[in-house]
Amino acid sequence: TQLLEQSPQFLSIQEGENLTVYCNSSSVFSSLQWYRQEPGEGPVLLVTVVTGGEVKKLKRLTFQFGDARKDSSLHITAAQPGDTGLYLCAGENSGGSNYKLTFGKGTLLTVNP
Amino acid sequence: DAGVIQSPRHEVTEMGQEVTLRCKPISGHDYLFWYRQTMMRGLELLIYFNNNVPIDDSGMPEDRFSAKMPNASFSTLKIQPSEPRDSAVYFCASSLVAGVGEQFFGPGTRLTVL
What we know:
Largest sheet of chain B: 7 strands, mixed
Number of helices of chain A: 0
Radius of gyration of chain B: 13 Å
Oligomer: heterodimer
Number of strands of chain B: 11
Distance between the termini of chain A: 40 Å
Number of helices of chain B: 0
Shape of chain B: globular
Order of helices and strands of chain A: EEEEEEEEEEE
Strand content of chain A: over 45%
């Protein structure tokens, strides 16, 4: 079973601060996705990274895929209350025809005004 | 597009009762996924379908759980008999392609088994 460990599990910060959350595994993934989930709703895709070492930016969010495709990070600059939510990483199994995502347990971020 | 539709949004039932959760995927999406989310275990894949055919049901916890997809626009997840440990939020998701395709999640069904 491929596991994804996310850290920290909980994070509470003030508006304007920067933060980084991590997603780590001992397994290699062919791609990795980051989702954000708000209370009472399903997760919504933020980004997909495919290439080892890849960096993608989405406004104030920066996503990086590790060179070995085993880990990823999400950095948020100048966090805002609207960034509050559960951030989930999900890795796609490498190879084979059986496609599915393995999700981490998530980082619950609270940005206080 | 209305997105993925799930019903009911909330279900409260007593142990031993049958529970049926329903999902309508986004039109044209070939893949449908059923997930369960709890605080302890996070978001777990239960089963997924491709073109209405179950591909991987290794995440289905036990024989009390069953899922069907009779056509491209409807799927059900049934628990019979239900137990308190089945209490969780159940999500349905659909995607157009496999691989790096985005999964679109429904709003979930919050199930409470007393």
